[in-house]
Amino acid sequence: MISSRFWQACERFGRDFGRVSLGCLCRILLLILVLGSFTALTRAQDQGSSTSPKGQQTEPPPAAGGPQTDVGPYAVPKKKDEPPPPPPPEKPKKIEGMPDYSIRVDVPLVEVPVMVTTKDGQFISNLTKENFRISEEGTQQTISSFTISDAPITAVLLVEFASGNYYFMNDILLGSYTFANTLKKDDWLAVISYDMKPYILADFTQNKQEVYGALNQLRIPGFSETNLFDALYDALDRVDRIEGHKYIILMTTGIDTFSRINLDQITKKIKNTKDVTIFPISVGWAVRAYFEAQGRAAPHGAMGTRVDQMDYLQADNEMNTFARLTGGRAYFPRFQAEFPEIFRDIGGDIRHQYSIAYHPTNPKLDGSYRKLKVEVVAPDGGPLKFRDQKGKDLKIQVIAREGYTAKHTVE
Predict the structure, then answer these.
(1) Which range of residues forms the domain containing residue 115?
(2) Does 358 map to a domain?
(3) pTM reported for the whole predicted model
(4) Mean pLDDT, residues 320-330 taken together
């Protein structure tokens, strides 16, 4: 059908256009048909791509995952249902003319080491928090912390070594070696000697051999002056930088000859130094007793300088004061055989003691000195009684520092 019509048209064109051959006309018509069919196919494809089903996405959203090319499907992650964020807190209304400020309250904490022993020096270890009552300037305080310490010690052995009486030096060296023998492997000890000024023979160490080596240097004394107050002040200043509780074992005659620091200044320094307990051990009592029997005072110094008996009594009183202010005990042995027992007592006091802490009811940081009183009572508040194996009442000693100096904050 189509071919007959095609040839009729060719004959008609041949008659009308005689100059054009029949073959050329056929080729021209065939080309027109091919171009028309190609144009129709292209329009159909364009219409199919431009029309898509309703609701179908053609481009992935920015948050979608999956392939990022123009080929293949893509996935849109589903968001979880999240609760709405809480509303922001309301800011306080600012009052005009009032500056911004913050409040900080420093609550001081006072720690008091306490030793409770029998009259014979035996440590009483079965007490509880309810057995202690502590007062500050007459006002009872509430104990917030209570522990029984059995820990390594940090101590300074402060030794008087000056050109003087041989018996004094012999007692000092024997007592120092005896104390060194009581050290345990975890204890820290520094050795300082003094005459006209202090000398650090061994810094803090846990090695007993270093301690013995430091004491072995004390063979030939130098100056005859014994500046006790200067040496003690220097030792307190050094241990004040160390954390924790410290102890000073003071081997001395108690005589101060040439210090720049006076008694009032060293007493104030002791009160202001926290966490330090002083154990003074007086030496040379046998020599002193010998000269006292002859109505004289024992000489002091290389040139045999004589001091009055009142000077020795004053020195004994000062050592008692140093110990009482810091919660320690002063010892006055008459014989060298007493040294081992004394240092066993000191070791027991240092290693076995109660530690009481409280927040004072007076929070003022005014730098004032406040007196303390520690009592041992029964749980009901009455007197606490101890009895020995024979049923006799035992007298107890409560040893604690007499007071402390509050921090001073300058406004």
Answers:
(1) 108-150+352-411
(2) yes
(3) 0.63
(4) 91
